[in-house]
Amino acid sequence: MNQDIILLGHGSGGKLSHQLLDEVILPHLSSTGAAGQNDAALLQIGGSKLAFSTDSYVVDPIFFPGGNIGDLAVNGTVNDLSMMGARPLFISVAFILEEGFSKKEFAEILASMRRAADAAGVSLVTGDTKVVPKGKADRIFINTSGIGVLEHGLQIDGGQGRVGDQILVSGTIGDHGIAVLCAREGLGMQTGVTTDSAPLNGLVQELLGLGDALHVLRDPTRGGVATTLKEIALQSEIAITLREEALPVNEGVTGVCSILGLDPLYVANEGKLLAFVAPDRAQEALKIMRAHPMGCDAAIIGEVTSSGGGRIQMETVVGGMRGVEMLSGEQLPRIC
């Protein structure tokens, strides 16, 4: 394999993405180490502490069950800010359009973005549009950036996991990735699976009531729950044990994954969060999640068992243990 070219796997959010970040991008642009790689940057400006995030969306197809590239872009940026404990305020949006793209479809995407912004209570405040010749892009790509404000003194990031923390997920996993995959491949399966793309800022605001018992928040997008937990384990220098029987997976996702040989742990989510919570407040956190529309299927799926190593293991339903690693290669390209 030519080691000097970019592969699809470099956009997976998994091992190759981290290699590209650590070996190429960060040496040229930043001195941020693994412990500082979170969903948004924290900025101190005067007496205000802000979160700033940026993301690009290249999902294929651009329309899929339950959503489209537009509301996905808004929700994704809202969630990245929220995972730092920030209240999202403002979003910018930039479009790269391919010549020949339908104005009707573009208008539909724009309308969905406005609805998503209104639902999340954020404002779309600035943007840009570029058009490239036909064949030089794939219909539409979207970049969004967002700013949010931190209104508390808590430190919530991927480096704050502690021994004893209980790990919660806010709902069923793998919904978004499977919804997009079925739409892309025209599988015709009557799964009923739709994207879980949704804003999580309201749920996060409720969880902030846990105070300093809330240590880590992260939305498991590219690479799924497994890759995201591996990132947190490396950032916090902890070891994690998961319980397979506790993982919430809906029947449609389970069915498609079984047929195609996929593992839901590695399938993308766009409306779920992981939370690391002190053990004496975990049941309270679970109650908060289940009382909120975005967390009604929440579950405690594991715990931090020791410090050091960044190791993850899972108790399987048959009673054994297996290692859980970061996504290798590209399981489902262009999923967000």
TrEMBL record:
SUPFAM superfamilies membership: PurM C-terminal domain-like (SSF56042), PurM N-terminal domain-like (SSF55326)
Coiled-coil stretches noted in the UniProt entry, renumbered to this chain: none
Domain (PurM-like N-terminal): residue spans on this chain: 38-149
GO biological process entries: protein maturation
CDD domains per UniProt: HypE (cd02197)
InterPro entries the UniProt entry points to: HypE (IPR011854), PurM-like_C_dom (IPR010918), PurM-like_C_sf (IPR036676), PurM-like_N (IPR016188), PurM-like_N_sf (IPR036921)
Domain PurM-like C-terminal: 162-313
Protein origin, superkingdom: Bacteria
Family: Belongs to the HypE family.
PANTHER family: CARBAMOYL DEHYDRATASE HYPE, HYDROGENASE ISOENZYMES FORMATION PROTEIN HYPE
Entry protein name: Hydrogenase expression/formation protein HypE
Organism the protein comes from: Geomesophilobacter sediminis
